[in-house]
Every structure is written in C-alpha cells, then in structure tokens.
UniProtKB/TrEMBL annotation:
Pathway: Amino-acid biosynthesis; L-histidine biosynthesis; L-histidine from 5-phospho-alpha-D-ribose 1-diphosphate: step 2/9. Belongs to the PRA-PH family. This is Phosphoribosyl-ATP pyrophosphatase. Keywords: Amino-acid biosynthesis, ATP-binding, Cytoplasm, Histidine biosynthesis, Hydrolase, Nucleotide-binding. Its EC number is 3.6.1.31. GO terms for cellular component: cytoplasm. Gene3D superfamilies: MazG-like. The gene is hisE. Its main location: cytoplasm. The keyword Transcription regulation does not apply. It catalyses: 1-(5-phospho-beta-D-ribosyl)-ATP + H2O = 1-(5-phospho-beta-D-ribosyl)-5'-AMP + diphosphate + H(+). One of its GO terms (molecular function) is phosphoribosyl-ATP diphosphatase activity. The keyword Amino-acid biosynthesis applies.
Amino acid sequence: MNAFEQMEAVITQRRAQPMEGSYTCYLFDKGLDKILKKVGEECAETIIAAKNGDKTELIGEINDVFYHMMVMMNECGVTLEDVCKEMDVRAAKIGNLKQFHVSDHNT
C-alpha cells in the first residue's frame, strides 16, 4: 500500500468511525463548503511556496493540497482508483495530439 492509499484508508476510516479531536472528522462535520475553502487555501499557499523557491516548504504545501483534495474526494464519492483510472486513460492519449492549438493572448 502506497502513501496515497494509506491516506485514503485513514480518511475513509475517520468518516466511518469518527474520532474525537480528529482534524479529518472536523472537516467532514463542517461539510463540503469548509473542505473546499481549505482546498483553495492550500492551493494558494502552494503557489506562494513555489514562488518563494523554498523546496521544503513547497513539499509540505503540496502534501497539504493532496490531503485536502483527498478529503474532498471522499466527501464527493470519488476514490483514488477513480482518479487513477482516468489518469491511465489520459496517459494512453499522450502523443496522439495531431494539432496543437495556440492562443494569441495579445488579441
């Protein structure tokens, strides 16, 4: 089991068996709006960390995004397997693009 699968298992367990003091349970209790707010905040913090050039900070923020995205996925009924299947479909299309459309952002 990889780290993403472990994280998904813990999130699923927290939802099924709430544990007092659990941040994951707190997010589920507050609902989708709170979860989405946290996803947005963590994305913004990740962008700032990337801009600041601190690799350690960036790695931490990326992990925060992954965690909050996985809580959102669970809340919305999306599994890691669902996402990986779509990734496989998209990976099979790599290199099949016949014409690349370029937008002229000056007009």
